[in-house]
Automatic annotation (TrEMBL):
The keyword Transcription regulation applies. Keywords: DNA-binding, Transcription, Transcription regulation. It comes from Leadbetterella byssophila (strain DSM 17132 / JCM 16389 / KACC 11308 / NBRC 106382 / 4M15). Gene3D superfamilies: 3.40.190.290, Winged helix-like DNA-binding domain superfamily/Winged helix DNA-binding domain (1.10.10.10). GO terms for cellular component: protein-DNA complex. It comes from the Bacteria. Coiled coil: none annotated. Belongs to the LysR transcriptional regulatory family. PROSITE patterns: HTH_LYSR. The keyword Nucleotidyltransferase does not apply. Residues 1-62 form the HTH lysR-type domain. This is Transcriptional regulator, LysR family. One of its GO terms (molecular function) is DNA binding.
Length: 278
């Protein structure tokens, strides 16, 4: 049994599809199937229900597979911790693993790394990316990473944090958008919105709840996984959107930025934090 095979198994279990898992792992599907077969032979059990896969084309874990999945996650996490700690003891610089989340602007990461490296010149920073800001917090809590760039709210009471920056929301439209001079209330009613998917957006539900209480339901025509893509689509006139006030739009000539002061959304804040345990 190899760690590589365990990682393959985890991908298949989470994607519930051999083809998509193979794409994620950058290997062919037959090669992936062969490695899973070797793992099952080594363990002496079926991890995936063969009947479900052959008859219904569904990837379903067996009872043994469910147990192995839970233990596999712990094993991979342990292996990564061992690797990190071993590296830490052999390098002249102290290795610090920094967690970031997918929707975090790369400028924020580079900015933090520059400041941290200047304050801790004997430190080498290793970046680990997570899907969601709450996953960063959980990884700090479990010792998987040393520090994490996240946003409020804090989901785990035993963690500590330092506020890095606070920002509001801005409304963004293309400069030739027909609603560019309309009031926010009219845009909430008539605009076609592009939005970050809720799982990547730190205040998605707060925006929706504020709008709902005021009697507005946004027409979200497209959801994306990155702020950069959202801004590009708005610039192309595909819709309107919200963006953090901390974002630098100087290199976005097609974007019109409007403040949300004195609107129903003026109190919403995004607070960027550095999360740690001690």
């Amino acid at each position: 049994m190899e760690l590589r095979q365990i990682r393959y198994f985890i991908q298949v279990a989470e994607k519930k599809h051999f083809g998509r898992a193979a794409e994620e792992l950058f290997i062919t599907q037959p090669a992936l199937s062969q490695q899973i077969k070797l793992l099952e032979e080594d363990l002496g059990v079926e991890l995936f229900d063969r009947i479900s896969r052959i008859k219904y084309r569904k990837v379903k874990l067996t009872a043994a597979g469910e147990y192995f999945y839970t233990q596999a996650l712990n094993l991979i996490k342990l292996a990564e911790n061992i690797k990190r700690e071993t590296k830490r003891r052999t390098q002249s610089k102290e290795l610090v693993t920094l967690g970031v989340y997918k929707a975090l602007l790369k400028e924020r990461i580079v900015e933090f790394m520059a400041e941290y490296s200047a304050a801790h010149p004997k430190t080498l920073i290793n970046i680990k990316e997570f899907e969601h800001y709450s996953e960063v917090q959980k990884a700090v809590l479990e010792g998987e990473i040393d520090l994490g760039l996240s946003v409020l709210p804090l989901h785990f009471e035993h963690l500590k944090y330092q506020t890095i920056k606070k920002g509001k929301l801005n409304l963004i439209l293309s400069k030739d958008h027909p609603l560019k001079e309309a009031h926010l209330e009219d845009i909430l009613q008539m605009g076609e919105w592009i939005e970050l998917q809720a799982r990547f957006h730190p205040i998605y539900h707060e925006i929706e709840e504020t709008c709902r209480k005021a009697g507005y339901v946004r027409n979200i025509v497209q959801e994306v996984t990155s702020l950069n893509l959202l801004i590009s689509l708005v610039g192309l006139g595909q819709g309107v959107g919200f963006a953090p006030s901390l974002y630098d739009f100087s290199s976005e000539p097609n974007i019109l930025v409007r403040s949300l002061e004195e609107t129903i959304l003026e109190d919403l804040e995004i607070t960027h934090i550095l999360v740690h345990k001690h």
